[in-house]
Amino acid sequence: MREIIEAKSVDDLEKIGSVEFLRSQLDEAVAPLKVSANSYNEIFDLIKALKQKWLPFSDQVFTSERQQVIYYLVDHDGEQRNDLLGITDEMYEDPDAAKKWFRKLAQTIRADINMDARSVKAFQVLQDIRSNLVDDEAFGGGDE
User: Fold this and answer.
1) What is the Cα–Cα distance from 22 to 13, expressed in whole angstroms?
2) Thinking of the domain 65-139, which architecture would CATH place it in?
3) Confidence of residue 134 (pLDDT cuts 50, 70, 90)
4) Which of 7, 53, 84, 99 shows the smallest number of beta carbons within 10 Å?
């Protein structure tokens, strides 16, 4: 199935198998839905649409940026987390850069309106990271 999903052209699909074979493979993948494509072009168009709109066919791991940021904050730490979150050396020296970064991520998480446990935990971790970037006075006395 992976070979079908990764096909870059109609020619690639033709090399994999017949229209009937491709349709049966896609039928299994989207069951209980049925594929009605009758040509390589229709199958190729269907695969492109599935990759854009259906999570099991998508290359994206996360369903939203919020989910991704929360995962980085809660499930990672140290240098790896800093890299994933885009923390740069400049942020340790420039309070304005750190403040801009913090506000962007705080807005993404929105722990104030998304009161699930992971949002709240992620915001706590974000605040800890912020306090390590620059002192609280640079952030207006820490009243954010």
Assistant:
1) 8
2) Orthogonal Bundle (1.10)
3) confident
4) 53
